[in-house]
Amino acid sequence: MRLSPQTPTLPAVPDLRALLLDLDGTLADSNDAHARAWVQALADQDITREESEVRPLIGMGGDQLVPALTGQSDRSELGKALVQGWQDHFGPMIPEIAPLGGARELLEWARAQGLKVVLASSGEDDIVDALLEQIGVGDLVPLRVRSDEVQRTKPAPDVLQAALAKAGVSAAQALFVGDTTYDARAARAAGVACVLLRAGGSPGLNTEPHVLGDPAELLAELKKATS
Question: Which GO terms describe its biological process (predicted)?
């Protein structure tokens, strides 16, 4: 498929064969819940952080976020306790999380076009499974990167490199959809075209070249660009 946008809202991908997608803030409206879960996990360890301090860091994995908040590795005793605490607090929030507008329709369109669809997220398997089920798209994401398949999370390119391998395509044949500057940095490092969505509520997107509102707006632009 040739992605030749008529407007600058999308990057050009002359031979589009795969759609790589982030989960939190891209398909699921879950970023605020992640921030609350981290704040609660920190409080469990007698570390006080405001949600406003944590929220801009959402989009990193625990290996990046724990050092940013505490100066310690996620593999330290404190780091392990924080990661476990985040999981424990986030899990009960999942039933309240909604899909972002057009998430399922975007995935259905990509599948109908014959594109490989890969979830490019390094979240813990049980959390990702529950979240995909909650937002009603688990049946549309046949391929995904598992947490134990990457050394480093975003903004490192490992997750996207693993997603490309699962799709069996080159970096030039994929489009990655995310919602944070960490996603954009990972995409640039991996050489993958990227679109970011504002619906996740993440800061700093105004400096990025290709930004749209939500999955529904992205789908509309993709349809125009491939018609």
Answer: DNA repair
> With contact defined as beta carbons under 8 Å apart, do 113 and 1 qualify?
yes
Condensed to tens digits (0 to 9), the pLDDT of residues 128-159 reads 999 999 999 999 998 999 888 999 999 999 99
**Alpha-carbon span 216 to 219, nearest angstrom:** 5
Report how far residue 191's alpha carbon sits from residue 111's, in angstroms, rounded to the nearest whole number: 23
**Where do the domains of the chain lie, and which CATH numbers do they carry?**
18-30+98-226 (3.40.50.1000), 31-95 (1.10.150)
User: Residue 65: which pLDDT band, with cuts at 50, 70 and 90?
Assistant: very high
Which string of DSSP letters, residue by residue, matches 29-76? --HHHHHHHHHHHHHHTT----HHHHGGGBTB-HHHHHHHHHSS-TTS
Peptide bond before residue 92 is cis, with ω within 30 degrees of 0? no
Contacts of 133 (CB under 8 A, 6+ apart): none
* pTM, entire model: 0.95
Q: State yes or no: pLDDT of 196 exceeds 70.
A: yes
DSSP state of 28: B
Segment 7-46, tens digit of pLDDT: 678 999 999 999 999 999 999 999 999 999 999 999 999 9
Cβ within 8 Å of residue 200, ≥6 positions away: 24, 25, 26, 29, 31, 100, 179, 180
Where do the DSSP E strands lie in the chain? Answer: 18-21, 116-119, 143-144, 174-178, 193-197, 211-212
Q: At 224, is the secondary structure helix, strand, or coil?
A: helix
Phi, psi of 57 (to 5 degrees): -90, -10
